[in-house]
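Researcher: Next sequence.
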Amino acid sequence: MAWEDTSHAATLRMATSSFRRLDATVASRDLAESMKTHLHLIQAIASEAPDNAHRARMASVGSEAASFAAWLSWDMADHGSARRWYGSSIKAAHGSGDTLLAAYQTGSLASFEAETGNPHQALRLITQARHALGRNLSPLAAAWLSSIEAVAHASNHQHHSCERALKACEHSAAQIPDADPVAWPWIFAFDERKTAACRITCTARLGRPLHARIGEQEIATALSGNHDKQRALLTLDMATGYLTAKEVDTAFTLAARSLTEGIRLRSGKIIERARSLRRTYSTPRPPSVVRDFDDQLHTTYL
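Model: Next structure:
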């Protein structure tokens, strides 16, 4: 067949973007098989690329698709596959010659490591991403990387380092509207909602009471997004903050709400986070709200 590089790359990239939009409300397990087929198609078309320039453009398309496949694996709590796909996305990004894309994929792996209990690895990856960008570190990229750094520090219980990263995130985010446009197309808008959500997550990781650090308006802002999975995970972080403040009924009412969403969306990530929350609370006579949560959790199989 005749090679139509621009048409092929644009069409395949648009398909990946469409899958990303579906992810907000569709179970990853329902998207994963379609993504595998999509990746095979990308590989097949890339294999027919006539020269290095065309192969580089297809490597960029493949990197974006592999990164989303990693995201889906992560949501299904398949960490081995997620790490493998993130590695593939970084390798393909380097093959494309797109430094910006390679930095983004490195930051994506850093986010995965920060969230799954490997904060030291996350911080090393963030350093690599920043070094790769150099002077091309736009306010949007800086805010995003600082938000991942904050979560990594919080996961490692480094309070002061976390706070510094949060302030850097907020400072960079405030500069985004006035900055020169920079191609960083893989991140959804980084705004007040993102910074508020990051602060809630860090508060949970640091083991601090929620309302000692976060106001009602900031909570409302953080929860105002329309991504069902992300909202459920954030609600579990809020539940952790309430549990730290010994507000058990509120904590497990919120956790049960998130668990219901996790079951509906068949999200292993959400359900495992709910199990992790439950392990942090121990009492010989749990109240009814906790017993109800246990009943719901113990009958959940994915």
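Model: The chain has 15 helices and no strands. Residues 52-75 form the longest helix (24 residues).
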